[in-house]
Here is the input.
Amino acid sequence: MLKLWKSFGGNDVGRWLVSKIVCFNAPYFSSIKPRFAEIKPGLVEVKLKKRRAVQNHIKTVHAIAMCNAAELAGGVCLDVSLNGNFRWIPVGMTVQYLKMAKTDLRAVCKVDDFHWDSAQDVVMPVSVFDTNGEEVFHADITMRISPKKK
Here is the structure.
């Protein structure tokens, strides 16, 4: 994933391509049509447009669409930060709906200490911001890290 981003993530077309490839491998995320803005160990940013398909009955971005963006940002962040000998799977998510999401959004997962070298559960924090820079949603996603099967 990181190699793909380093090769193609430098322009709009490349970021679109990386987003499409990720959604091809994990098709459920296609429902929110995400666009990666940044991918590096310890930091992933995903953009999400407010459009009819992700709105609820009061015309704000639906909570589950924000959960999807958060899981995508947290999962990719862990994936590009984790030693290649390990795999991961989400095992829990705690969310807070802080404000109505009335604009396009960006989900940011940032972890400063990401040098995991043993099987464990880690919490990936994801903040979702509106176009005014206000946090409208927060998720703490518990991910289980385990050794890859040989």
Summary: Residues 22 and 104 are 20 Å apart (CA to CA). The chain has one domain: 2-147. Helices lie at 2-8, 12-25, 63-81. The beta strands are 35-40, 43-48, 86-97, 105-110, 120-130, 135-147.
